[in-house]
Fold this protein.
Amino acid sequence: MKDLWTVKYRPESLDEIVGNEQSLDMVRKLAMSNNLPHFVFHGPENSGKSSTAFALAHQLYGEGYERNLAYFNASDFFEQGKSYLVRDKRFIRIIGTDDPKKINKSVINIFKDIINEYAGMPPVDSDFKIIFIDNAESLNSDSQHALRRIMEKYTASSRFILSTTQPSKLISPLRSRGLQLFFTHVSDDKLANFISTIVDAEGLQINSDGIDALVYHARGNIARALNTLQIASVQSADESIGPQQIYDSTLGEQSENIASLFESITSKNILEARKYIDALILEEGLSGQEILLQLHKVTVNSNEADDIIAKWVTKIADTDFYLTESANDRIQLEALVAGFCQ
């Protein structure tokens, strides 16, 4: 397979981003004023938060935008820990070793040192640089308080963009430091139009039913639509892509642990279900909402009675709502399992 289309078609400017017009208009106006505040971008996975941050940097700094943009993924720091730190060559000079066993400092202190280091660097040919911290919900309370102090210290030379799927996990003093903008998945119409442009660019053959099937599967998630369409294009060769090809392309997207989780739930084995939740979160790195999406699909396609499926789908929907304000995905998923097993 050639380059991933999610990378190939990543927008380079704010005008190329699909959807989220209100938030993008605000970012665009502030960028033109050259009076950029700190930002807190929040919304579901693959809703355009990262694309907006990179496109903003590209618009402000041009082709060499990487010189004034520092990207950090908080989940890498606090979920993978020291094993991640030694793999990222940017940090070797700061931590002084490429052996995780020789790192004496805590991950929190290393995070503080790294952000301090990058925030303290002067911008290149600009009034300020951007420090983009993705998955900010992974930061614990101590690191968030430290980040707040760093933002205050270097506000003259650095602008911070925090991206999160769960803004409630951010402490109030940190949320108040940035302009909060909400991102969501695009409408079906906008997604269908976007797919049509990719189909034309790649010279694909896809019928209207195939586009409808892809839109239904992606549910406004552009990244999911691109991945599915790319797989379908490879599997279909020169044939026209229709609903069956889209369906076949989605079969490999479901984790085996999801099926095992569902089996544990239906057999009312809570201990087994908790084991698979851990595997999905810790080993596969799925968010609570990604797990719910796959679990919803398995539930709807199960052979259970319609009234039972309806009851379970309602519980999944309730849990999806709770996750938007939850401080812990695992707690909400375990509560869902308990509800299933009643």
